[in-house]
Design a protein that fits this description.
Layout: E1 6-7, E2 21-22, H1 29-33, H2 36-47
Antiparallel strand pairs: 1-2
The chain binds iron/sulfur cluster.
Iron/sulfur cluster binds near residues 9, 45, 49, 55 and 58.
Length: about 90
């Protein structure tokens, strides 16, 4: 997240080319992170990474992930997703 509250999916997106939204007094991080816009950004990264400038040459890509939900990107099975953003 940038100092102005702009949320991006990855630290490599340092120009906020695929911003998910911006935290404000009325818009929480949780709302942005779980929004349809955030899902669309994840899907674009997953399905069209060659079109995403900051992903094109990334060594950390995981192309085996088939779900764009945030849960699919967590490895730790002990995380309680119901209370994660409470
Ligand atoms: S593929 Fe690499 S640059 Fe793209 S979102 Fe994932 S970790 Fe970030």
């Amino acid at each position: 997240m940038f100092a102005d509250g702009t949320v991006v999916a990855c630290e490599q997106d340092y120009n906020a080319k695929l911003a998910m939204g911006r935290v404000t007094d009325s818009l929480r991080f949780k709302d942005i992170w779980t929004s349809s816009q955030a899902a669309a950004v994840r899907q674009q990264i997953r399905d069209n990474y060659k079109e995403v400038s900051f992903c094109r040459n990334c060594p950390y890509r995981d192309r085996e992930t088939t779900d764009v939900s945030i849960q699919a990107h967590y490895i730790n099975k002990d995380i309680d997703y119901e209370t994660l953003f409470s």
